[in-house]
Amino acid sequence: MSQMESLTLPDYGLGAAGLGNLYSEISDETAHQTLQAAQQQGMTYIDTAPYYGHGLSEQRVGAFLSETSGQVMVSTKVGRRLLPAGDTAIPDNGFASPAPFIPEFDYSSAGIRASFEGSQKRLGVEAVDILLLHDIGELTHGDAHETILRQALEESLPEMAALKAEGKTRWIGLGVNEIAVCEQVLEKTDLDCLLLAGRYTLLEHETSLPFLDECHRRGVRVIIGGAFNSGLLAAPEGGPLRYDYAVAPEWAVRRAAELKAVCARYGVPLAAAALQFCRAHPAVTSVIPGARSADEVRQISGWTATRIEPALWAELKERQLISTDAPVPA
Fold this sequence. Notes:
GO cellular component, one term: cytosol
Structural class: alpha/beta
Protein name: NADP-dependent oxidoreductase domain-containing protein
CATH architecture: Alpha-Beta Barrel
Shape: globular
Oligomer: single chain
Helix content: 40-55%
GO molecular function: oxidoreductase activity
Number of helices: 11
Pfam families: Aldo_ket_red
Largest sheet: 8 strands, parallel
Strand content: 15-25%
Organism: Hyphomonas beringensis
Strand order of the largest sheet: 1-2-3-6-7-8-9-12
Distance between the termini: 29 Å
CATH superfamily: NADP-dependent oxidoreductase domain
Number of strands: 12
CATH class: Alpha Beta
Radius of gyration: 19 Å
């Protein structure tokens, strides 16, 4: 990995799906204030994607980049092209009032190049720090998975490597919600990094822990998205309980309540433990919670700075609420 050492991400960055109006609409001004607050709090790494708000998240990040003088690192993704909607109905992908485009999977070499060129325009940049191949894997593609995996290995990743060689990005990797596809790709090729969403969290990490250990051995840096399991571990009292982008199942609600009760005895917000737990694994280079307002950013920043007694982690292990092998903050 020739350029691996040339990029140092902050411990905590900002996931920008919410800036694409995920679940509900926010204004351009609110998005701008969110990005401003993130920069002020040292969360100087932003992860976005063409899919988020069908280009809206990238547009808003681009508007911010055009006005800020401070250093900000950006990752975006390839694997979908945005086609102008025209008179066609815009599909509901969970984004409220998205931009008038229809996202379509395209993992061909030409599709990767076209996707990146679209991102360059929306972000107003020549190059990004990290470029990720978005949403490959069996969970997303079902029966088409093997075909798409082959195309990813033969076309997508070589095209991304070419963009890296041209100086258009410093790291390349995957941005996915499943571990199996990461293992399948790493069997065949080297990657600089992985953005793994919702699979290594305080709530559930037993099955992903050996994989993160292997990433650490191989020098593949892991960026953790979905540290709150789609909000479950940071839900305010009486707020909606979401897990994996849907209504939280009973087992997850019960386990989150057990974790919360232990944290409460130590005066620690569950969300603070959730973020700091993810960051403690040596393979993890950055954790990127999502935020939709400056207040949420400041709240996240407070959680990352919360002092947590070692006794809390010891009790969670004793009660088998976290794996005895899981690295915890020192």
